[in-house]
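Schema walkthrough. Field components (list of strings):
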Amino acid sequence: MGTTLEPRSKRVARFVRERFPIEKLDAQSMIVKKEVPLHKMSWAYYMGGLALFFLLVQIVTGLLLLFYYQPTVSDAHASVATISEHISGGAWIRNLHAWSASAMILTVIVHLFTTFAMKAFAAPRELTWVSGMSLALLVFAFGFTGYLLPWNQIAVNATKVGLQSVEAIGQYLPGELARWPIYVRETIQGEPSVGQATLSRFFAIHVIVLPLLTVGALGVHLLQVQIHGMSRGVDALKVKTEKFFPFFVIKDLSVWGVAFFVVAVVAMCLPFDAFLPYPLLEPYNPLGSTPDGIKPEWYFFFVYYPLELLPYWAVIAGSTVVGGALFLAPWIFARTTRRTLTVLAVAGALYFVVITLFGHAIYEALKGGTP
Amino acid sequence: MTSALRVFVFLSIAVPGYAHHEFQTFVQAHSGRPVNCAMCHTSADGPEGTGPGQIGSLDELERERLNRARAAFDPSPVVDSPILNDFGNLIVARLGKRRILELRSNPAVLATELGNESDLDRDGIPDAREYLEGTHPLMRHHGAPLSLFAHELRANAFHVVMLGLATIITLYGLISILRGFALKMQAAANAEDH
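Field assembly_structure (string):
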């Protein structure tokens, strides 16, 4: 064929140049001339913007909660109760924070499945995909760290279970690596048991570390989306398009408006805590026994129920393989057809929906009792 | 010795805290939700012990209140036991302790006898229904989700309408601004072409 092997440094330089083309780094290319494909899956293009909108709601409501929240084991629960019961609009803001967090994670998951099915990770959009996967991980980390902050029974006990799961990975690692999960747990936990140091660290991670990482990852993600545009998403060679500005932006904004109205009404009329048994909402009692019904948030059910039903090593191995494959999707699935990717995405989405909605029933049917 | 005094002495010795687990067991089985003593008692761990709201921690005045409440064998206008919360005191006031003891063998009837008039936390769900559904009758943000949503939607109808109007007006304004920008950009592009 006559092709010569390109030196690695040149390949890297070319890769970076193609992902960040200087000639496209202007408003003309990124906004004015940008076109958005129109086809039966076009609705999926709104998922990323919707996730961004819910993130903005998180930032605004989170900032307002910061004015009253006290990150100490003695006052955290009382300060949350004060926000909900005595601060004007406090219950609405807190519910808005909780509901929009769930909405954000749901939207991120839908965005992940749809972009996978549409092969939106194909070159030159590898960095869009990898930064998006990083954002998905960050969103789950936000959920995990935020869960502890109200310092109630379910928060502390679920966090303990989560941290123990991290430590348990060590038994399957060789040599000195086996101690790493212990170091990770100790670093996050900050003291022998979940206590003030843990709360302080979770708080710092939730309000400083994760937001900073998110800004970085989101910056790369949005820049890549604007430079390379939305992927065509379907196999058809000729696809109708519409102008990104103003038509797509106006539609995107309208979706934001509807989403805001829905989540604001739900936050006003349906307290997030109503779904939990009230003993789990009581202040954490370090001397008491662990109450019944301790569970993570619904968006962790996809890994929680398998952990309760299957051997630990199987779940960890499965999660590592699936997580690794997702991160490296642009290279692993480079030659896979959209049809195959759609089948994989539908299977993944079905698994997620079934385990989230029926995980408890499946557990009862297979093992009897509750996890 | 009167019968009331005999019951009082018996209860004071045999069940000093009047923690009636039959009700808790029934509610958990009926509702499928875990519940604890905090539904009726001040302390989530029940009345016995030395923690806050438990018998061992009561001062002299609170012990007097407890003794007065312990004497409420029949329905009475006000019961103010320091080991019971408002819902627990309401149950004793409405039914009297004698009836409560009788209902231990049939805890479902407690809801019927309480009636649907009382809603201590004003969440739109009667206390008796909250008892059956295993939700807390004193927590305004706790109740069966659908009932709570329906009640709050009715209560906040004005806010919901105003929120809808505000959203529509804001969207209209933002979209108009974007259209204005788009027109200006188009005009600038046309001028450049000429």
